[in-house]
Design goal:
Elements lengths: L7 H4 L3 H5 L5 H19 L10 E4 L20 E3 L12 E9 L8 E7 L5 E7 L10 E5 L2 E5 L4 E8 L5 E6 L5 E7 L2 E4 L11 E6 L5 E7 L2 E7 L7 E2 L8 E7 L5 E6 L11 E5 L5 E3 L4 E2 L2 E2 L2 E8 L2 E9 L3 E10 L4 E4 L7 E2 L5 E3 L5 E4 L2 E4 L13 E5 L5 E7 L5 E11 L1
Length: 419
Amino acid sequence: MLEHEERLATVLRTVSDDVRTRPTLVADVRRGALRRRRRNRILGGAAVAVGAALVASAVAAGGLRSVAGPETGPENNVGTGGPSPSASTAPPVPVNCRVEKLPVPAGHPRSRVTGGDPGGRFLVGRAYASTGYTDRHPLLVWDGDRMTTVDMPGSDESFDDVNGSGVAVGFSFGTGDRTTAYVYRDGRLAVLRPPAGDVGAGVAATAVGEDGTIAGSIGDVGRYQPVVWRDAGAPAQPLPLPDGHLSGRVNDVDTDGTVLGTVSGPGSPGHEPGDRGYVWTPDGTGRLLPLPQIDGRPAQSLWVSTIHRGIVFGRAVTRDDKMMRSYPLLFDLRTERFTMLDHAFGLVGNSLGWMVQEGDRMAVAAPAGRAELPPLTPSAARAGEGVAAMSADGLVIGGHSNDANGEAQAVRWRCATRA
């Protein structure tokens, strides 16, 4: 559940033409930008600018970087590379990735993927009826190559996650920019209810597990309370925050219903120093995830993204007055062991330590090798292309790639492996 909205620069490309026919467009674009910022805070967006700090990835060229933990505590369990294969098998390497344009409704020149299930069967996304600004979008569910269109009430609507049964969750903005959470299941869209007594609060659903557990948040700008729906037909249940943390957000739900989130201390919610990974087990018990040691000092933050079968993918963060550094890693809830991932840097990854490296030469990078993610249009610039979902085995990746006109198109990359 990562940043999948258009960047404001992309939205503004056609403003000058549209303003002549729609005088309210500037206000609409400003409102859309504020909604994107709010959506990213709710989702824990993958690409966040923090002040004027320079963000650097900490990737050791050509090898793995060793880090030490403190003398005591689970943080001492730090390794490098990826999950260890058995002695009789070589670690898999991605090869021969191919790109496929996903079907979209006619008359929609732009589209993008916003989520996917761990098995790689389902993707969710949305389409755009204009190359300029629009705040209403048909939502899309792809089961393989079969597309289903869903009409969610409200505006700036989005599905943000889907499970292997095709259950999708998301939210939209309504009057006063109050959010409403929805679940799509068996061809029907239904509202997810807030906790009893919180009928006036904005509600967002951001993750769904393979067992049907749905999680998200309630609240408004400035403070969010994580919640869970163990039963989609019942009111949400608040997930308690640890002492000293005033806000939280949900990042993912594991196969057994364990909820992965991020909790924040005093100040604005988001990617701030002191943010910590947190898990709530199916019985409601919660615990903070430890901080690893980076170059002999504890990291200042742990930003978590996904969880699969007890293994968390995220990033440790250190910062000073001039720079913020981000270190991709895995954390195993069972062994309390960190694994630092120094073979690449990516915001989207999985429990195998595979990551998507974005940029001019997009690639899926495993600890033992990498493969290029080819563009939809070889001659098109790759600026603004991105990825929203990676399957648990790393072989199916959902995102968007530019067409010959420079417009984003929802795509799926499929890769093979070799030992």
